[in-house]
Write a sequence for this structure.
């Protein structure tokens, strides 16, 4: 008995229940290629990071005792004018 096996199958060593389609796409691969996944568009990157509110920063410095009330009032008058 002679068993004729295509050369491609012998070379690739197809084993298991993998279907052989002669080097073409399987039906599942063809369906996936016909409907590519839609990736969300990339978010634009900001060139500069957002700047914190200077009044809020002064309030934090005053609460933590880094500056005293007179320094706070002086710096706040510079920021708001």
């Amino acid at each position: 008995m002679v068993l004729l096996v295509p050369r491609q199958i012998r070379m690739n060593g197809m084993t298991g229940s993998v279907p052989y389609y002669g080097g073409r796409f399987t039906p599942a691969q063809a369906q996936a290629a016909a409907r590519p996944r839609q990736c969300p568009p990339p978010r634009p990157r900001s060139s500069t990071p957002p700047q914190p509110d200077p009044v809020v920063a002064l309030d934090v410095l005053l609460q933590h005792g880094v500056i005293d009330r007179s320094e706070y009032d002086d710096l706040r008058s510079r920021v708001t004018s």
User: Anything to note?
Assistant: Residues 52-81 form one domain. The two ends are 100 Å apart (CA to CA).
